[in-house]
Amino acid sequence: METNFYNPVKLVSLSLLALLIACSWLILPYTIQGNNLMQSAGNESRLIRADTVASYLTREIINTNLIEITGTFATTEYFQYVDRAMTVNNLRPDRNFIFFINETMHTDDLPGALPNVILRINDQEYLPNFSEGPNEASHHRLSTFSFSKFDPENNPIQITNDDVIELFISNNYLNSQEPLTFVGRWEGGIELPEELKSRNDITWIAVLALGAGLLSSVLTPCLLQLVIMFGGIMGGLTNSAQSHNPVNYLQSARNKMLLIATSFIIGFLLLYVLAGIVIGYAGNQAQLLFSVHSRNVSIASGLVVIGLGIWMIFRGNKISACPVMAPDAIQKFNQKDLFATVIGSIGFALGCTACFGGAIIGTLIVYVGAIGSPVIGGSIMFIFGLGVAIPFFLSALFLSKSKTFMLAISSYRKSLNLISAAVVMLFGLILVTDNFHTVSDFIYPYLGLS
Question: Distances in Å between the alpha carbon of 403 and those of 8, 36, 67, 236, 253?
Answer without folding.
Answer: 13, 44, 79, 18, 10
